[in-house]
Amino acid sequence: MPELVEQVEVDAPPERVWAALVDWDRQGAWMLFTDVRSDDGTGGQGVGGRLAAVTGVKLPGGRRVGVLDRMLITGWTPPEVVHVRHTGRVVRGTGTFEVRPRGEAASTFVWTESLDLPLGVLGRLGWPLVRPVMAAGVRLSLRRFAAFARDHRG
Q1: Is the separation of the CB atoms in 149 and 12 below 8 Å?
Q2: Chain-centre distance of CA 132, in angstroms?
Q3: 122-148: per-residue pLDDT in tens?
Q4: Can you give the pTM of this predicted structure?
Q5: Rounded distance, CA 96 to CA 79, Å?
Q6: With helix as H, strand as E and coil as C, how does 15-48 read?
Q7: What is the mean pLDDT of residues 69-77?
Q8: Which residues pair with 37 in a beta bridge?
Q9: Mean pLDDT over all residues of the chain?
Q10: Concatenated DSSP letters of 118-143
């Protein structure tokens, strides 16, 4: 199962970084081409919570059209780590969002994805071509997250 791991330094304490991370409805402010929402009425705040993300283009009027990524929260240890299982038709595998303290006023945010690639052999053969593009998008999203988390009030 291919794995992608990226991280960013954040000039904010772990509690603020955590609050920014699990502010699911505002993830579109920092995650490229993606809108996320809680999919079960829990607000996605704990094990068993369900999230739905749509990655794609935004139409006039604000609706996003693209790939639906359904997630189940399988691990929840505030303010340190969230584990999710991707359960959609296209996006499958696991993800981990980890907040590591760097003193009292700074943190490192680590994003890990272990993907069950679609299309069988074709997906595995295409991964070396897709991986650099995906990694670049995640790195840009993480830089945006660092600013979002630094300024997050929630």
Answers
A1: yes
A2: 17
A3: 778 787 888 899 899 999 999 999 999
A4: 0.91
A5: 13
A6: HHHHHHHCCHHHHHHCCCCEEEEECCCCCCCCCC
A7: 97
A8: 52
A9: 93
A10: TTTHHHHHHHHHHHHHHHHHHHHHHH
Read off the pLDDT of residues 84-125 as tens digits, 9 standing for 90 and up: 999 988 889 999 999 999 998 999 999 999 988 777 787 787
| Cα gap 135→131, rounded to integer Å | 6
Spatial contact of 148 and 20, defined as CB atoms under 8 Å apart: yes
Looking at residue 94, its pLDDT comes to 97
CA Rg value for the chain? 15
Long-range contacts of 31-40 (CB under 8 A, 24+ apart): 31/141, 31/144, 31/145, 32/137, 32/140, 32/141, 32/144, 33/57, 33/58, 33/64, 33/66, 33/137, 34/64, 35/64, 39/70
Q: What span, in angstroms and rounded, lies between the C-alpha atoms of 108 and 77?
A: 16
Q: Report which of 110, 101, 105 is spatially closest to residue 138, judged by C-alpha positions.
A: 110
Please give the DSSP secondary-structure letter assigned to residue 1.
-
